[in-house]
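Researcher: Re-running this chain for the archive, since the previous output was lost when a drive failed. Same request as before.
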Amino acid sequence: MQPKFSADEKVLCFHGPLLYEAKILKSKKEAGTYMYFVHYQGWNKNWDEWVTEPRMLKQVAENFEKQKKLLATHMAQTKANKQAKKVEKAKKVKGGSDSGSNSRASTPVSDRPAGRPPKRSLADDEVSTSSRDDDVSNPPSTP
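Model: Regenerated C-alpha cells:
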C-alpha cells in the first residue's frame, strides 16, 4: 500500500469540525496505517500533530468549497447556540421560578420598611472589656 500523501505536501486537514490548511512535515507507517505529522498554516507549532489519512484532503477547488461550507455551517450553529443561551439567560433573570420560592431575600420586598435602617448602638455584650484598652487609655505612672 502506497502513501496517499507525501512530505512537504500542502493539504486540508480536519481539526474538530473544520478543515484547515496544513503542510505535511513527515510521515510514518504504523500498524499498516500511514500517519502524517502536519503543521497547520498560520498556527503555532504547538498545534502540530500526527493525523491519519481519513482526516486529510488534497488541496483542490472542490475541497476548498467544502472547507467554506463547513465554516459557514459552524458559524451559523455557533451563532444559534449563543442566541439560545442568551434567551435562556434572559428568562432566568426576568422570572426565575414560577412559585417565587427561590427568592434569596429573607423578607418579601413589599414588607420591608422604606429607606435605610437606623444605626446600631453597641450592646453591653459588644463593649470591649479588654485590659489592654485600659492600659492604653490610662498609662502607668512612672516612679
